[in-house]
Each structure stands twice: as C-alpha cells, then as structure tokens.
Design a protein that fits this description.
alpha+beta; five-stranded antiparallel sheet; elongated
C-alpha cells in the first residue's frame, strides 16, 4: 500500500509540473532583437549590444537567453553584454513585461582565432549576401576557404565571398577556414522565399522554411504593379479565412492546425499561387517531453527498487525466524515451525475480526 501511495504522489507531481509548464508564450508580430556588431559570431572577450524593436518599451522589457535575464538590459533602450565568454553562446531574444517574445538570434562566442561574419536576420531571395572570414590576430585580408553544410564551395584571396543573387538553395550552415589559423564555428544562413507564381501579378510573401509552433507568422499579399497597401483576401485550403485592408494577415501564435495551402487575391487584379505553410513542434516542447520521459523512467526505477526492498525485508524476516528456531531447538523441523507460525497468525486474525464484528 505504501508503494502504491508513493507512486500516486509522484504521478500527481508530474501532472502539476506539466500544468505549470504548459502556458504558451505569446509572440509580437514584426518584433525582433538587433545586435551590434551585426554578426552571429564573436571572439571571446568582445562585447555585444542588444536593441529591441516592436515593443512598448515604456511598459518594460528585457533581453534574455534560456538561462537568465541579462542584468544590464533592464534600464535602457540599448544594453551591452561586456566581455562575452564561450559560455554566453546561445539564443537571445527580447521579452516584454507581459511575456511577449521577439524572434531570436543565435550567437556563438568562440575561443578560437577565426570567425565567419554572416547576416544576422533572414535575407530575401534575390538579394546579395557577403560572407567574410576574419582572423583575430590580424585585420588584413587573408586567403580563406568557405564551406556549406560541410562541403567546400570556394576560396577567396580577400577573405570574402559574395552570393550576388541568393536563392533558397543557398540556405544552410556555413563555415570558413584560414590556413595556419583554424576554422570558424558554423552559422546558418536563412533565405526567405517570395511565394509567387511565374508571370503572376499577385504574390504572397511568407516564410520559406517551416515555422515553430508558438511563433507569429505574417503573410503579405501584394501587387507587383502597385507597391501600396491593397484590400486583400486570404484563403487556406481553398476556403476564405480573412480579409485585410492592409494586405497583411498575422497568425499569432501559429499552431499545427494552421498548416495548409495558402493563397491570396486582390480584387480586380487576380490571385497568387498556392504555397504550403509547415509548422514544427517547438524545441522547448521537445526538450520538456524528453525531460518528462527521463523522469518517468526514474519513477519506474524507484518503484522497482522499493518493491525489491520490501521483498528483501520479508525474506530477511523469514530467515530471522528460521534462525531463531534453529538456535532454540536444532532438531526441530524449521518448515513446520514456519507453517505453525502462519496458522497462528491466521487464527489470530480471524479472532480479531470476530471481536470487531461483535463490537459493532
């Protein structure tokens, strides 16, 4: 009974912890965190400044990572993390007083001698992108080799590589190396693709890559001939879901139920092609699920250990009874003593029940 009660208490603890972690965090449409210098990789002991955009700063805000709120980012519009260490690597974001969150930036602080400068924010398809390989020891240009997803893509005597018109196929993890100095960490280049059909006058701008559950997603319908805002209608899987006088529609927060084929139309102009929106589970949810799985196995292991302890104690008690009988009378049959003891306890139990019944 004690083991069963312990199991019930542990299960209740798990359910309470899950309920405390299940409140979703809201996102702010078009809110982001800007960093200076504008690069994702830093040498150790360099400083980096953060600026939050898209928040009501007078209501209170902070910059934080998964471990803590940055102490210097609570009193001013722009805050600075001085002397960054390798342990400061990770995702950073802005957070409003009500729990609103911006997009994140993934900063890498290295103790090595080489870093790769790449765009902090996603770039639009068709834009020019320049990657620069830097050596801590010198500011002059050095010959550098560039790699994408682990594959060599080119060398440069100036330490720079430019992609004149970036496409979705250029998205991926980039690194660089300088002979005699070493290799940089990897940074991801994200390319946003314009959703449109070839030759069409109406296009739908949206995320090119799968979005994370809980994020804010903005879809924009525009006419190539008129850059101004237009009345637009948005469709999901062929069904009208919203009309907008600004030509934009925001889903905040996005969930798995929002997956599907989207298109938009502008009255008198036409409609865009359909494009898919894919939503993936949040990393926090995956990590949390993993933690609960580990905790569940720990609970099972504890229960098994307790059961083994109970069995061991009963066996130990039995051996003590047999040992006591053997010491008192070596010639006496030990098993018969155990049987007699069981009968005696059974008889005493029946008598107790009778007494209780008569008392009632």
């Amino acid at each position: 009974m004690e083991v069963r009660a312990l199991c019930i208490r542990l299960v209740l603890m798990l359910l309470v912890a899950h309920a405390q972690q299940s409140y979703p965090q809201t996102s702010v449409s078009d809110a982001d965190v800007r960093i200076v210098p504008s690069r994702l990789q830093l040498f150790e002991y360099e400083s980096v400044s953060f600026t939050c955009r898209g928040f009501n700063l007078s209501a209170g805000w902070s910059v934080r990572n998964i471990k803590e709120v940055i102490p210097t980012c609570l009193t001013s519009v722009t805050c600075t993390l001085n002397y960054a260490f390798v342990s400061d690597s990770g995702e950073y974001w802005c957070e409003g007083a009500g729990g609103e969150r911006s997009s994140t930036v993934n900063i890498t602080v290295t103790g090595g001698s080489v870093i790769l400068e790449s765009p902090v924010l996603p770039v639009m398809e068709g834009e020019a992108v320049t990657l620069r390989c830097r050596n801590r020891a010198t500011s002059s240009n050095l010959t550098a080799d560039f790699y994408k997803d682990g594959l060599f893509i080119g060398s440069s005597s100036t330490g720079k590589m430019t992609i004149a018109s970036v496409s979705k196929f250029d998205g991926g993890l980039y690194t660089c190396s300088i002979s005699g100095a070493g290799e940089s960490p990897a940074s991801r280049l994200t390319v946003r693709v314009v959703w449109c059909c070839s030759g069409g006058s109406v296009i739908l701008d949206g995320p090119a890559l799968p979005v994370t559950e809980g994020d804010a997603v903005t879809l924009r319908c525009r006419n190539q001939g008129t850059p101004s805002e237009l009345q637009a209608e948005f469709y999901k899987d062929g069904l009208l879901i919203r009309s907008s006088s600004t030509g934009e529609m925001t889903i905040d927060p996005v969930s798995k139920s929002d997956e599907g084929l989207y298109k938009c139309s502008v009255s008198g102009v036409g409609e865009s092609a359909q494009s898919p929106l894919t939503v993936t589970a949040s990393r926090e949810g995956i990590v949390l699920h993993h933690h609960y799985s580990i905790l569940l196995w720990v609970v099972i292991a504890v229960v098994l250990v307790l059961q083994l302890l109970v069995i061991g104690l009963l066996h130990w008690k039995k051996q003590l009874v047999l040992l006591e009988v053997q010491l008192n009378d070596p010639n006496k049959d030990q098993h018969s003593v155990v049987k007699q003891d069981k009968k005696k306890r059974y008889k005493e139990g029946k008598e107790d029940k009778k007494r209780k019944g008569s008392f009632i």
